Amino acid sequence: SLPLSPKPPTLQFSMATLSEAALVAASPKLLFRQLFEKESSTYTYLLADVGHPDKPALLVDPVDSTVERDLKLVKELGLKLTYALNTHCHADHVTGTGLIKGKVPGVKSVISKASTAKADLHVEAGDKIFFGNLFLEVRATPGHTVGCVTYVTGDGPDQPQPRMAFTGDTLLIRGCGRTDFQGGSSQQLYKSVHSQIFTLPKDTFIYPAHDYKGFTVSTVREEIQFNPRLTKDEQTFQGIMENLNLPYPKKMDIAVPANVVCGLQDLVNNV
Ligand SMILES: N[C@@H](CCC(=O)N[C@@H](CSS)C(=O)NCC(=O)O)C(=O)O
């Protein structure tokens, strides 16, 4: 008789084989897009409740130079943009929130109260920003700037699972925001990340405002394990932050004054 040929291996994919961060947040209602602005390596996020008849949407951290692209996408997808949010007063690029307000009547700009920047809505820890039946919860995460917040998708039966945290510059993938200007404090940043982000469920997705190495998404579990700065004890972390020796952002002198007035330095009355 013929020798039995070995059975070809069957292909098996399990949750354990795939990187957790490669999975997309599961919600039949949430439309989610991650958009990139190359010059400042900034991520803008579009979220919408497509289970709601109006398809209300919001943008997190839009950039002035990519507003046209973002609004074209919003239109193509038939969404109704209701909010344009900033995680903080950015120092490296001009926010797109002011421009968006001028182009889409009714959109409200949002930033933290602690930022002292102009906006239609000033949020604080614990506030909820609803778009349709979905919402973002506000967590105060000062340290990169005094007014930094992290927006986290809601905790509830109809909200996206796993949760998603839009961390701005507080927590970057395998990094974190610098703490050497705009009221920055490495002590505060360490506390913010450990108390407000690392305490979220481990499968929570981390979506930062920047990435300089080509990463797109991480999870709380991954950052607790692999973040080269925030896995250290607080004293070592402070030493790391004091010795980053990063040059100031090239656009800082333009960006900060513009962003305190919603990105519209010359049109203060329109904010
Ligand atoms: N080269 C860029 C600015 C790069 C930079 O400083 N990034 C900030 C966030 S934007 S204020 C940061 O916190 N970086 C942390 C890090 O470890 O890189 C430019 O000129 O715009």
Describe this structure in words.
- With 271 residues, the chain is an alpha/beta fold.
- The protein contains six helices and 14 strands.
- The chain has a six-stranded mixed sheet with strand order 1-2-3-4-5-6. The chain has a six-stranded mixed sheet with strand order 7-8-9-10-13-14. It has a two-stranded antiparallel sheet with strand order 11-12.
- Helix 2 links the parallel strand 4 and strand 5.
- It is globular.
- Residues 40, 91-92, 169, 175, 177-178, 210, 244, 246, 249-251 line the site of ligand L3IBWBLD.
- This is persulfide dioxygenase.
- Keywords: Acetylation, Dioxygenase, Iron, Metal-binding, Mitochondrion, Oxidoreductase, Signal, Transit peptide.
Provide the descriptors you would attach to this structure in a database record:
alpha/beta; 6-stranded mixed sheet; binds the ligand N[C@@H](CCC(=O)N[C@@H](CSS)C(=O)NCC(=O)O)C(=O)O; 6 helices; about 270 residues; sulfur dioxygenase activity; disordered N terminus; RibonucZ/Hydroxyglut_hydro
Instruction: Give every kind of bound small molecule, once each.
Output: ligand L3IBWBLD
Radius of gyration: 20 Å
| Structural class determined from secondary elements | alpha/beta
Helices, by number, come to 6
Quote the average pLDDT: 91
Which regions are unreliable across 5 or more consecutive residues at pLDDT < 50?
1-19
What is the 3D shape?
Answer: globular
Query: What's the oligomerization state?
Result: single chain
Strand order of the largest sheet: 1-2-3-4-5-6
Q: In whole angstroms, how far apart are the ends?
A: 84 Å
Question: How many β-strands, per DSSP?
Answer: 14
Percent of residues in helices? 10-25%
Order of helices and strands: EEEHEHEEEEEEEEHEEHHH
Q: Report on the biggest sheet.
A: 6 strands, mixed
Strand-residue proportion = 15-25%
Domain Metallo-beta-lactamase: 41-210
Family: Belongs to the metallo-beta-lactamase superfamily. Glyoxalase II family.
Pfam family, one: Lactamase_B
GO molecular function: metal ion binding; sulfur dioxygenase activity
